[in-house]
Amino acid sequence: MVIVMEKIKQVIAVMLMVCSAPMAWATAEVDNYRLGSGDRIEITVYAEPELSQSVLISSSGMFDYPYLGNISAKGKTVRQLQAVITDGLRGDYLVNPKVMVNVIEYRKIYVNGEVKQPGGYIFQPGLTVEKAIALAGGFTDRAARKKINITPNENGMTQKGVALHTSVAPGDIIVIEQSFF
Questions:
Q1: Can you give the residue ranges of the Polysaccharide export protein N-terminal domain (predicted)?
Q2: Which residues is 152 bridged to in the sheet?
Q3: Distance (Å, whole) CA 31 – CA 25
């Protein structure tokens, strides 16, 4: 009986480790995420409903916030933006503000070329080229499945012939070329 219980404990421990690994990866990815134009964020200030709001980051990477005016969010992590707002509200407006910032809608990725429904799709953490193609309705009959290019939003340098498991970031452009046969 004791041996069986130990085996059950080992199996449960392994299952917990396996299940929590993707969550840890996703949390690290979100923690390092850099905000940009097109992201929608939610700012919550504890016990201050008039300061809690949802905002869309403009094409300039800025948004307007009560008492603080225009705030630059472009290139900042959620935690960095949270610190900017907290520091701005501290003192003149609030004694010890409790601010939380969350991304509620990421900017779009674009899937073009030989897919059934080309266009822009809202980014989701953990998105790969294969999943993005699935969002776009899958390959057309004329798609060259080995000729997939991705242009990252960050540097604009097109990567040719990427694998289906390649990670996609917000703002990236994926193009599936046409097959000749």
A1: 29-103
A2: none
A3: 10
Structure tokens at 140: 């057309």
Give the model confidence (pLDDT) of 165-174 as tens digits. 999 999 999 9
**Per-residue pLDDT reduced to its tens digit, 109-154:** 999 999 999 999 999 889 999 999 999 999 999 999 999 999 998 7
The sign of the torsion formed by the CA atoms of 163, 164, 167, 171 equals positive
- What does the alpha-carbon distance between residue 160 and residue 40 come to, in Å, rounded to a whole number? 30
Under 8 Å between Cβ of 85 and 44: no
The strand pair at 40-45 and 99-105 is best described as: antiparallel
Residue 113 parent element (H or E) = strand 108-113
The terminus-to-terminus CA distance of the chain in angstroms comes to 64
Tokens of 181: 């046969």
